[in-house]
């Protein structure tokens, strides 16, 4: 493999890792904030002390987004580690 393509693949992988890590952190923070807001709202509502399925489905599902972003981050990290390992063995 040409040195240019090696550097390009590693740079792209590191970019994906950084972007997915930032997205995962952002989604985690939003998920925790959304959960605390929902529980505060449910606790303050005198007529309904229980979160209903409809109230849980409102808005964006940040928890699911956080899981997807962390999965992408881990897979990209493992791919980069594997790629570097293969390059060390071959080179």
From TrEMBL:
It comes from the Bacteria. This is Uncharacterized protein. Keywords: Membrane, Signal, Transmembrane, Transmembrane helix. The chain crosses the membrane at residues 69-90. Residues 1-22 form the signal peptide.
């Amino acid at each position: 493999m040409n040195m240019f393509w090696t550097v390009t693949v590693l740079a792209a992988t590191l970019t994906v890792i950084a972007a997915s890590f930032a997205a995962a952190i952002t989604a985690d923070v939003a998920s925790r904030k959304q959960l605390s807001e929902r529980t505060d709202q449910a606790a303050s509502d005198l007529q309904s002390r229980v979160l209903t399925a409809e109230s849980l489905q409102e808005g964006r599902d940040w928890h699911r987004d956080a899981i997807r972003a962390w999965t992408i981050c881990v897979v990209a990290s493992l791919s980069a580690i594997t790629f570097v390992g293969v390059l060390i063995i071959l080179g």
